[in-house]
Amino acid sequence: MDADLRTLKERLAEIFDLSRAMAVLSWDQKVTMPTGGHPARAESLATLGRIAHERFVDDEIGFLLERLRPLEESLEYDSDDASLIRVTRRDWEKQRRVPTELRAEMIRSAALGNQVWIEARASSDFASFLPALRRNLELKQRYVECFEWADSPYTPLLDDFEPYMQTSEVAEVFGTIRPALAELVREAPEVDASFLHQAFPPDGQAAFYGRLLETLGFDEGSYRLDPTVHPFCTSFSRRDVRMTTRFESGLDGLWSTLHESGHGLYAHGIAPELERTPLAGAPSLGLNESQSRTWENLVGRSRPFWLHWYEPLQATFREQLGDIDLDAFLAAVNRAEPGLIRVEADETTYSLHIILRFELEQRLVEGSLDPADLPEAWSAGMAELLGVDVPDDAHGVLQDIHWSQGGIGYFPTYALGNVISLQIWAAVQDAIPDLDAQMEAGELHELAGWLRDNLYSLGRKLTPKETIERLTGSPTIDPEPYLAYLRDKLAALPAGA
C-alpha cells in the first residue's frame, strides 16, 4: 500500500508540473509575449493540456485510488494522505467524463480568444469578438453534456470553480443580497471622489505598491508584480507568485494590487507538504476570492490601515492628494456610487455587477439568450441594477477577460467571496483583538500569519463548506454579516461629503 501511495504521488507530481508549465505559458501570454505569438502559444497550451489530461484520467490512476481506499479509511479524515486520495478521486471521476480532445480544444480556444478580446476591447467592437465567444460557449455546452445535473446546466460549470455548490444555492444567496444592495445604493450619500480619477504617475504607483507588498507577509524573493491589460494572479509554486496590476485608471491600481495580493498570499501560504499535489490550491474560488476581497476591502479601505499609510501616499502623490485630508479620502474610497466598470466598482455596487453576469451566463448556457444579443441584454441589466447607461462595448460587455477564456461559471465566486470574507473576518477579529491597533502601526504580519495557519495552509484538504465551518463554526454562506458591514459603513459616511 505504501508503494501504491508513493506511485500515486509521483504520477500526480508529474501532472502538477505539466499544469504549472501551462501556467507559465499563460502568464507570459498575458504579460510579456508579443501579440504575434498567440497562435503558436495556443497550440503549445493545447498540447500540454492534452498530455496532462490523458495522464490524469488514465486507468492506472483509478486502480491506484481503489487499492488505496482501505488506507484512506484508516487515516484521520483531514490528514494529508487521506485528503489527497479523497480529493484526487473526485477530480479523477469528474475529468474521466470529459474527452481529452474536448479538453484540448477548450484550452486552445481560450488561448486564441484572449488576443481577440484584447483587440475587440481596444476598438470597442463586440462584433469582432462574437465568433470567439460563440466558439467558447459551444465548447462549454459540449462540456456540460458530459455531466448530469439536478437544477441547471450551469451547475457543472459552476462546480469547476465552486465545488459541490448548486446554481440554486448561488441564486438563493444572490436573491438575498440583490434587493438589499439596490436599496443601499439608492440611499447612499453622494461623496466627492473626483480626486481619485486624476492621473497618478505610474512610476509613483509602482513604487508605492512595492512598499505595500513588502508588509503583507510574503517571503522575500517569492513574488513579483507586473502590469497587464486585465489584472490577475497566478502561481507556479508557493514561492513563485506572479501578481499583475494596471496603472491607467486613476488610483484603482492600488486596490487591484491589494486584491491580487490576497490571491497571492493564499498561494504563498499553502503548506509545503501539499506542493506538487492536487491539494495545492484553494477549496473553491469563493474562498480564494474571500481573501482577495479581505485584503482589498476589509484591510485596504479601513481607517486603521490608512492611519498608517495615508501620509506616505500623500507624499508620493503630493500634487494629487496634498490638499485632501484623510476623512475626505476615506469617504471617497468607501462610497457607494454606481459605475460602468466592475474592477473599478466600490464595495456596495460590486456584487450587483456580479449578479448581472451570473444571470446572463445562465441564459447563455441554457440557450435562452443568443450571444449576438448580449450587448443589449447587458445594457438593460446595467440600467435595471445600477441605473447607468452603457455608452459602448468597451465599457460594457467587453470589459472582462473571462468569457474570452471560456471562464463561464467563474463570476459568481466574486460575490460569494464578498459574503464569505465577512464571516471569516469575524473569526479573525476574535483571534486578534488588537488588530486595528496593529494595522494603525503598519503591522500586518500577525493577520497574514493567522490566515496562513488557519486557512491558506489547508489547501484543498477540506470541502468549501467544511473549510468555512472550521473557521466560523457554520458551513452556511450567510449574507447577513456582509450586508450589516455595508450598512454600517455607509451610515458612517458624512452626508454631502
Top keywords for this entry?
single chain, three-stranded mixed beta sheet, 497 residues, 2 domains, mainly alpha, Neurolysin, domain 3, 22 helices
Describe the structure.
This protein is mainly α and 497 residues long. It folds into 2 domains: 2-146, no CATH class; 167-491, Neurolysin, domain 3 (Orthogonal Bundle), CATH 1.10.1370.30. The chain is 62% helix and 3% strand. It has 22 helices and 3 strands. Strands 1-3-2 form a 3-stranded mixed β-sheet, with helices on both faces. A hairpin with a 2-residue loop joins strand 2 (233-237) and strand 3 (240-245). Helix 11 (252-269) packs across helix 20 (445-454) and helix 16 runs antiparallel to helix 18. The longest helix has 30 residues, at 2-31. The model has no long low-confidence stretch (mean pLDDT 96).
Major beta sheet, specifics? 3 strands, mixed
Overall geometry comes to: globular
CATH architecture of the largest domain: Orthogonal Bundle
* Number of strand segments: 3
Count of the separate structural domains: 2
Biggest sheet strand order reads 1-3-2
- Mean of pLDDT: 96
Supply the CATH class of the largest domain: Mainly Alpha
CATH topology of the largest domain: Neurolysin, domain 3
Give the uncertain stretches in residue-range form: none
What is the helix content?
55-70%
Quote the distance from N terminus to C terminus. Answer: 68 Å
How many helices? The count is 22
Structural class, by secondary structure, is mainly alpha
Order of helices and strands: HHHHHHHHHHEEEHHHHHHHHHHHH
